[in-house]
UniProtKB/TrEMBL annotation:
Pfam family, one: ATPgrasp_YheCD
Residues covered by the ATP-grasp domain: 112-347
InterPro entries: ATP-grasp, YheC/D
Keywords assigned by UniProt, alphabetized: ATP-binding, Nucleotide-binding
Superkingdom, natural source: Bacteria
Source lineage: Bacteria, Bacillati, Bacillota, Bacilli, Bacillales
SUPFAM superfamilies associated with the record: Glutathione synthetase ATP-binding domain-like (SSF56059)
Identification of the protein by name: YheC/YheD family protein
Organism: Fervidibacillus albus
MF terms (GO), sorted A to Z: ATP binding; metal ion binding
Length: 361
């Protein structure tokens, strides 16, 4: 029987999401497994993890061969953690009878360096540079007034800093949990602190874009794109995420709230929303095939867009492993549909493959 494996770094991570997938998958005639990358035995080509049983509606310990399809939901906190399991994951990726549905895209700096050469995408990219030293950061903050410092490797808005130059001092803001922390000092002290920060990990620098609404709440537009069994990309999810007033990020982890796209668009004149939606269409039509040409085939993508107060659209981030929590908070039916899409894709692929085999006999 065809099988799908759900790979995760933590046994409890996205448990409800994986359970939803498992129930749908067994209904479609698939064996479903769940496992941690550390449990991959490269030599024997087997994995120790859990199998979902339809009758019991639960996961039970099992040892199994490499699944036919892998839905990779590992969110690595840094490069070291990713490298820790690199050999085991590649063993799966290189297995001729295994197809990965999702992949990690390159870090933010590498991604920018690649995408800036595409003439269609380049206008949507904020100017980006690699953080080399504190002197560079303080210089850019002085010239631009305010800059954004982002970890090159990371997700969920963690580790982002805003550096602002005010008269004879620098103000640094960041988010811890749901709170915005702020401290200010002279260039010497802030420079020393920044140097220690970028010595520990890689960062990129961008201008601070005014991506806030009239109430000074930061927001972004999150799009979820999924591929159907015929290989066509579709925008399946579209939602706004609003952060706290005067905050610096809109992520739900930092206390943000979701707003339905259709509700948000009602506030704009037809001409402005037509321009924004044309820009969205341009990006969603261009990005998926471009990424698949440069990297490898994908099944779903998350695209985060910023919209400034002039209506200009900015490409903030693209993820090969998009989340779904924001949709769960808005519409359970939409959430269920988005959860089931990977299973439907696998089912369609198997159906097409079986049809081709029958045609050859």
């Amino acid at each position: 029987m065809p099988s799908i494996g759900l790979m995760t770094l933590d046994e409890q991570s996205e448990y409800a999401f994986h359970l939803h997938i498992a129930k749908r998958a067994v209904e479609n005639g698939l064996d479903v497994y769940r496992f941690l990358p550390e449990a991959i035995d490269e030599r024997k080509k087997v994995i120790t993890g859990w199998r979902f049983f339809k009758e019991e509606k639960t996961w039970l310990s099992d040892r199994f061969s490499y699944p036919n399809f892998i839905y990779d939901r590992c969110f690595y906190r840094n490069e070291d953690e990713q490298k820790q399991f690199e050999s085991k994951v590649k063993s799966l990726q290189h297995n001729p009878n295994t197809l990965f549905l999702t992949y990690d895209l390159p870090d933010k700096w590498t991604f920018y360096e690649i995408m800036k050469h595409n003439e269609l995408i380049k206008p949507y990219l904020p100017d980006t540079s690699y953080a080399k030293n504190a002197k560079q950061l303080l210089k850019e903050a002085k010239e631009k007034g305010k800059i954004l410092l982002k970890p090159a490797f990371g997700f969920a808005g963690r580790g982002i800093f805003v550096i602002e130059h005010k008269k004879d001092e620098f103000v640094v803001k960041t988010v811890k949990g749901k709170n915005t922390l702020e401290k200010s000092s002279d260039g010497k002290n802030v420079g020393r602190w920044l140097q220690a920060l970028i010595d520990k990990r890689s960062y990129i620098v961008q201008p601070f874009l005014n991506l806030s609404d009239d109430s000074n709440r930061p927001f972004d537009l999150r799009l979820l794109l999924q591929k159907d069994g015929q290989g066509n990309w579709n925008v399946r999810g579209k939602v706004l995420r609003f952060g706290k007033g005067k905050g610096i990020i809109s992520n739900l982890h930092a206390g943000g709230e979701p707003v339905p796209y259709d509700k948000w668009r009602e506030r704009f004149p037809a001409s402005k929303i037509a321009f924004i939606e044309n820009e969205i269409h341009e990006l969603t039509s261009t990005i998926p095939p471009l990424l698949e040409t440069i990297f490898r085939p994908l099944v779903e993508l998350g695209i985060d867009l910023g919209i400034d107060q002039n209506g200009a659209v900015w490409l903030l981030e693209v993820s090969g492993k998009p989340g779904r929590n924001v949709y769960f908070k808005l519409d359970r039916n939409v959430y269920a549909s988005l959860c089931e899409a990977p299973v439907q894709y696998v089912t369609d692929v198997l159906h097409t493959a079986n049809g081709n085999k029958e045609g050859e006999t």
